[in-house]
């Protein structure tokens, strides 16, 4: 083997080595950068006719709602205008998953307590029992003093169950389970445009960690949008 | 060593008995911890810590010593109304556990009595069965 062929072989193998090292790094980098900066849009998409331009792809939007919170105040979609919020479904006398679920949500609340852009909304699925004083007592016992940051809300039974479907949380009356209601411990993360951007199992600490990582990403996205619209 | 047919039968029987007995012990092993995880942990917490002023703690709870004799029936029948634990007032409905047998209640109680630094006096099945007479009677093992 001459010196030049050796050099050639060496440079070719070095190039191969470098590319094999670089290319996977490239692809994983771009993929993770993408998923890190932009959360997905969740829920059914529907092709709806737009007035001027034919059918348009619409992203699932949380329906309009009117609820009453633990202070007796009316809360609507406008209460969450310009904010992101995390929502779940519970009931005060729930002996099964609620305490665990609410203690997990409490972790999130305490982490983002200092950020007024992040709100919380817990719906009772037992409006017959969970009156406004019951909800107020529950919130206080949980250590939530500021009702404008974490609303514990009630409404007509049908309204609540319709919203549970909208937020993709299973909730239904079930006499066979303790407490009389079957429901999942799902947390939904909602953006300023009423779109669901994340669903998390509130019974799984690892998923709740994921939620706590996703919130800053969503906030960043919103700040970026604000800047482009103000330009 | 050459085993005759009778010895084979004997050896097999002994082996079977040992296996069955071991199976019996494995099934009941850590029963208290298992029942706690299934029936109590989602409210009282994995380490008996409770939840703020909503659910009372079991770890380091003065209630356990103060209300020792009512604990078996509370586990079976549940509890409603205000109680004070370590000076804090709680008022949350606790569901009963009607399907638990006397020995299961004993194991569950003893798990709580001796976990997370708790050093309460343990129960015998007989003691628990005697207390359960006040709420529907003994259910057997």
From TrEMBL, chain A:
PROSITE patterns: THIOREDOXIN_2. Pfam families: SCO1-SenC. The keyword Signal applies. Residues 1-33 form the signal peptide. Residues 56-220 form the Thioredoxin domain. Keywords: Copper, Signal. The keyword Signal applies. CDD domains: SCO (cd02968). Belongs to the SCO1/2 family. PANTHER family: ELECTRON TRANSPORT PROTIN SCO1/SENC FAMILY MEMBER (PTHR12151), LINALOOL DEHYDRATASE_ISOMERASE DOMAIN-CONTAINING PROTEIN (PTHR12151:SF25). This is Thioredoxin domain-containing protein.
TrEMBL record, chain B:
Pfam families: Cytochrom_C (PF00034). PANTHER family: ALCOHOL DEHYDROGENASE CYTOCHROME C SUBUNIT, BLL4482 PROTEIN-RELATED. Keywords: Heme, Iron, Metal-binding. The keyword Metal-binding applies. This is Cytochrome c domain-containing protein. SUPFAM superfamilies: Cytochrome c. Residues 27-116 form the Cytochrome c domain. Gene3D superfamilies: Cytochrome c-like domain. InterPro entries: Cyt_c-like_dom, Cyt_c-like_dom_sf, Cytochrome_c-type_DH.
């Amino acid at each position: 083997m001459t010196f030049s062929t050796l050099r050639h072989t060496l440079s070719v193998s070095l190039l191969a080595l470098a590319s094999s090292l670089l290319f996977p790094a490239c692809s994983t980098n771009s993929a993770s950068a993408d998923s890190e900066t932009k959360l997905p849009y969740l829920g059914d998409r529907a092709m709806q006719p737009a007035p001027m331009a034919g059918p348009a792809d619409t992203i699932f939007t949380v329906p309009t709602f009117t609820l009453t919170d633990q202070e007796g105040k009316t809360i609507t979609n406008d209460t969450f205008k310009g904010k992101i919020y995390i929502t779940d479904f519970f009931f005060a006398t729930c002996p099964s998953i609620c305490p665990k679920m609410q203690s997990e949500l409490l972790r999130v609340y305490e982490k983002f307590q200092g950020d007024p852009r992040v709100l919380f909304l817990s719906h009772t699925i037992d409006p017959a029992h969970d009156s406004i004083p019951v909800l107020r007592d529950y919130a206080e016992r949980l250590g939530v003093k500021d009702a404008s940051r974490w609303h514990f809300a009630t409404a007509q039974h049908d309204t609540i169950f319709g919203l549970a479907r909208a937020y993709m949380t299973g909730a239904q009356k079930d006499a066979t389970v303790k407490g009389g209601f079957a429901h999942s411990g799902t947390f939904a993360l909602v953006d300023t445009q009423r779109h669901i951007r994340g669903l998390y199992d509130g019974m799984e600490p690892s998923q709740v960690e994921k939620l706590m990582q996703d919130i800053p990403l969503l906030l960043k996205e919103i700040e970026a949008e604000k800047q482009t619209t103000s330009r | 060593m050459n085993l005759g047919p009778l010895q084979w039968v004997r050896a097999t029987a002994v082996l079977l008995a040992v296996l069955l007995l071991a199976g019996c012990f494995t099934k009941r092993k850590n029963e208290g911890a298992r029942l706690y995880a299934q029936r109590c942990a989602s409210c009282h917490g994995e380490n008996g810590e409770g939840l703020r002023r909503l659910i009372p703690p079991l770890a380091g709870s003065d209630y356990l010593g103060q209300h020792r004799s009512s604990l078996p029936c509370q586990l079976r029948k549940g509890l409603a109304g205000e109680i004070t634990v370590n000076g804090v007032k709680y008022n949350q409905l606790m569901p009963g556990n009607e399907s638990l047998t006397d020995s299961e209640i004993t194991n569950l109680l003893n798990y709580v009595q001796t976990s997370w630094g708790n050093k309460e006096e343990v129960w015998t099945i007989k003691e628990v069965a005697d207390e359960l007479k006040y709420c529907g009677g003994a259910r057997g093992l």
